[in-house]
């Protein structure tokens, strides 16, 4: 049997810096430390919640838990029946809670990386390129292509309009005479269109990122925080081991980047990246 | 026959006394919710409500055994349990709950200041075992800790605790230069401030206590407080706060403390 993992977490106030202001530190008593036993019950709960995050495309999920003990220094005792919540995001787990006369959470614990808690997280996952020819993958790749085209279009228009705007601003700045009313209204209209284009391109970028994440999960079964080990894209005879931290889509290829994993099995300092080409060149 | 009767009478008296003590403990439960807001550490029964039926028989057995050895037991309105040794009148503080050794905690706090989280083993911190601890209310004495989940026979355990208390207080003299618990069962300003903070947390801005605590100049270290029938005012060394009107909720909370009003007015200070 494996030894259970007991973690001792530090506490931070959620809203104001109550450690500095004496009035608030009296009013909002903070626990000194939080103890959490990551046994099978709670780890299965965490893995269930993280599954939910991927399926519903969320960034963080919270739920009520009971397996946590808080220590209060004011009463010098462990409080077991404090209402507490578990928060699970893609990469980390933390807890929050409140002392009963209050009705809102006002302290949180520090964050613990998910793959320290889950047992199967420290395994290298394979990337099966053959799965890209599945009908599901093909549809998603096509959709990504459309998004990318729209992104390119808005970007092109943005750059052209930006040139015009800078020219007009230059005209306004370098001539002593005031602009005609028509020209100044052009200036206004241009700047408003540019800002709306900027927003549009940002939203498309976000959509593409989400789609790429979805594709990666549904086709390869990979998510943020997983460890992978593949051939390097840039140097053919080298092997790359990394922990996925970022997923980017650019021009029919997905780039996975993150810190490398050393030979000892720890997370290193340097970052590496791997490119997955979604469309092979000899395809019609 | 007479002897039997007197024995019966004694038993009955003991039972009455015990039930009074337990009643006092139960009564203090309401006030003990305000303890996290208190600046002083107040010992007593720190047990969640669900475990009361499990712990109460142990408390009863210990009280019974202590009484039969001639100890006097006093319970303050906060629920502090003080046991007085019969021969030399040495005060012993008794406490039950989920505690932690303070020197151990200091080590962990130091480590947590540097790291966000630590991985520890189960025997480093004892957090899921109810404990009983006692300490003579003297300078330089130690807490003696006993685990309650190892108790099998109640009477035996109670007798053991009694003998431990007698042993530990045997080396102490009857005279002490400073009495830690001279304010035992008396209302001090810290008690009133704790209730004010608790009220502010409980009722929010619907009582004036909320704004009274946030008056930063005065509420940090007040010297005395004057409570009149419908208002409260805090005094510091050179300042005084505005008189704040107390509504019914706030008054109900404050009257949980045994405050004695003289002509609808009372002044409470540091003693």
Explain what this protein looks like in three dimensions.
The complex is a heterodimer of chains A (284) and B (271). With 284 residues, chain A is of the alpha+beta class. Chain A has 2 domains: 5-120, no CATH class; 129-277, no CATH class. Helix content of chain A is 38%, strand content 29%. Chain A contains 5 helices and 16 strands. Chain A has helices at 22-27, 40-56, 114-117, 135-174, 181-220; strands at 5-9, 11-13, 33-38, 60-65, 68-72, 77-79, 84-89, 92-97, 107-109, 112-113, 124-125, 227-231, 239-243, 246-249, 253-261, 267-277. In chain A, the strands form 4 sheets. In chain A, strands 2, 4, 7, 8, 9 and 10 form a 6-stranded antiparallel sheet that branches. A 4-stranded antiparallel sheet of chain A has the order 1-3-5-6. Chain A is flat. Chain A starts with a strand and ends in a 7-residue tail after the last strand. Chain B has 271 residues and is an alpha+beta fold. Chain B folds into 2 domains: 2-170, no CATH class; 189-269, no CATH class. Chain B is built from 8 helices and 11 strands. Chain B has helices spanning 2-32, 52-68, 102-114, 154-170, 189-203, 209-213, 216-219, 248-254; strands at residues 45-46, 72-75, 81-84, 91-97, 117-120, 131-136, 144-147, 224-228, 231-235, 244-245, 265-269. In chain B, the strands form 2 sheets. In chain B, strands 1, 2, 3, 4, 6 and 7 form a 6-stranded mixed sheet that branches. A 4-stranded antiparallel sheet of chain B has the order 10-9-8-11, with no helix packed on it. The termini of chain B are far apart. The interface between A and B is large, with 36 and 43 residues.
Keywords:
heterodimer; A: 284 residues; 2 domains; 6-stranded antiparallel β-sheet; 5 helices; B: 271 residues; alpha+beta; 6-stranded mixed β-sheet; 40% helix
Outline of the structure:
By secondary structure, chain A is α+β, with helices and mostly antiparallel strands. Chain A is built from five helices and 16 strands.
């Amino acid at each position: 049997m494996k030894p259970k993992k007991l973690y001792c977490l530090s506490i931070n106030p959620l809203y104001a810096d109550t450690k500095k202001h004496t009035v608030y530190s009296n009013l909002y008593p903070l626990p000194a430390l939080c103890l959490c036993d990551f046994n099978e019950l709670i780890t299965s709960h965490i893995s269930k919640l993280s599954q939910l995050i991927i399926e519903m495309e969320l960034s963080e999920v919270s739920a009520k838990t009971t397996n946590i003990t808080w220590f209060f220094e004011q009463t010098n005792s462990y409080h077991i029946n404090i209402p507490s919540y578990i928060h699970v995001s893609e990469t980390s787990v933390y807890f929050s809670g409140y002392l009963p006369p209050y009705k809102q959470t006002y302290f949180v614990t520090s964050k613990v990386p998910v793959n320290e808690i889950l047992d199967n997280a420290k395994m290298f996952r394979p990337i099966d390129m053959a799965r890209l020819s599945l009908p599901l993958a093909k549809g998603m790749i096509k959709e990504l292509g459309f998004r990318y085209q729209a992104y390119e279009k808005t970007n092109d228009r943005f750059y052209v309009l930006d040139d015009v705007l800078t020219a007009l601003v230059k005209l306004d700045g370098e001539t002593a005479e005031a602009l005609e009313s028509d020209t100044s209204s052009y200036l206004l209209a241009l700047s408003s269109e540019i800002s709306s284009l900027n927003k549009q391109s940002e939203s498309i970028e976000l959509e593409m990122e989400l789609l790429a994440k979805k594709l990666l999960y549904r086709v390869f079964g990979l998510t943020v925080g997983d460890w992978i080990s593949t051939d390097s894209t840039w140097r053919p005879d080298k092997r790359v081991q990394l922990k996925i931290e970022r997923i980017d889509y650019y021009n029919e290829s997905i780039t996975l980047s993150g810190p490398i994993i050393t030979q000892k099995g720890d997370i290193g300092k340097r970052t590496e990246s791997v490119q997955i080409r979604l469309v092979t060149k000899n395809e019609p | 026959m007479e002897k039997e009767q007197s024995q019966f009478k004694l038993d009955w008296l003991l039972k009455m006394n015990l039930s009074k003590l337990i009643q006092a403990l139960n009564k203090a439960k309401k006030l003990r919710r305000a303890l996290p807001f208190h600046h002083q550490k107040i010992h007593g029964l720190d047990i969640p409500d669900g475990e009361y039926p499990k712990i109460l028989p142990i408390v009863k057995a210990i009280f019974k055994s202590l009484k039969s050895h001639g100890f006097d037991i006093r319970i303050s309105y906060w629920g502090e349990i003080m046991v007085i040794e019969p021969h030399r009148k040495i005060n012993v503080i008794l406490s039950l709950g989920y505690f932690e050794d303070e020197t151990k905690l200091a080590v962990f706090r130091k480590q947590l200041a540097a790291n966000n989280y630590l991985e520890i083993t189960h025997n480093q911190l004892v957090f899921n075992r109810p404990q009983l601890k006692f300490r003579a209310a003297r300078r330089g004495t130690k807490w003696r800790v006993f685990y309650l989940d190892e108790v099998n026979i109640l009477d035996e355990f109670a007798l053991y605790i009694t003998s431990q208390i007698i042993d530990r207080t045997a080396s102490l003299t009857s005279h002490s230069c400073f009495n830690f618990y001279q304010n035992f069962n008396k209302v001090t300003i810290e008690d009133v401030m704790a209730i004010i903070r608790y009220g502010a947390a409980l009722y929010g801005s619907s009582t004036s206590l909320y704004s009274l605590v946030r008056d930063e100049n005065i509420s940090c270290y007040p010297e005395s407080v004057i409570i009149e029938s419908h208002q409260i005012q805090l005094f510091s060394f050179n300042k005084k706060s505005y008189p704040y009107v107390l509504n019914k909720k706030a008054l109900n909370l404050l009257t949980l403390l045994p405050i004695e009003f003289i002509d609808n007015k009372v002044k409470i200070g540091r003693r």
